[in-house]
């Protein structure tokens, strides 16, 4: 019987206003090589919001307040031959201006504030591109409120 392990993760679409329009914080992971958003597994006793806030601090070096939930995505993969089901909940985080990004050196070799177009072009995963699109709409609506 094929029993899969279920992982719960949280991540954030970090958006900042700039003179050139909105910017999205993205990371380049060394191995496997991919462009992605800040995200990671929940620690014991942690809420999704707490995990998203911690992951942004760990992976991007930013202290943020987690905003609205943007939704969740589910997918499966194999790890060491065993099936894994993963659920990632994404949140929006807005900054008044782009702050210095400090990528976690162990896993990432680059972090940047990308234009929306650049983020959508670079991000490896479709589910993260969808989260960015939704985050930009929500951020724009909040800015106009």
Structure description:
This protein is of the alpha+beta class and 145 residues long. The chain has one domain: Nucleoside Triphosphate Pyrophosphohydrolase. The chain contains 3 helices and 7 strands, in the order ββββαβββαα.
Secondary structure elements and pairings:
Blueprint: E1 5-16, E2 23-29, E3 34-36, E4 38-41, H1 48-60, E5 69-79, E6 82-95, E7 108-114, H2 116-122, H3 126-144
Parallel strand pairs: 1-6
Antiparallel strand pairs: 1-2, 1-4, 2-3, 2-7, 5-6
Assess the beta-strand content as a share of residues: 35-45%
Q: What is the CATH first-level class name?
A: Alpha Beta
Global shape: globular
**Architecture per CATH nomenclature, i.e. the level-2 architecture:** Alpha-Beta Complex
Total beta strand runs = 7
What would a concise description of this structure say?
It is built from 3 helices and 7 strands. The chain is α+β, with helices and mostly antiparallel strands.
List keywords for this structure.
seven-stranded mixed β-sheet, 145 residues, 3 helices, alpha+beta, single chain, 40% strand, Nucleoside Triphosphate Pyrophosphohydrolase
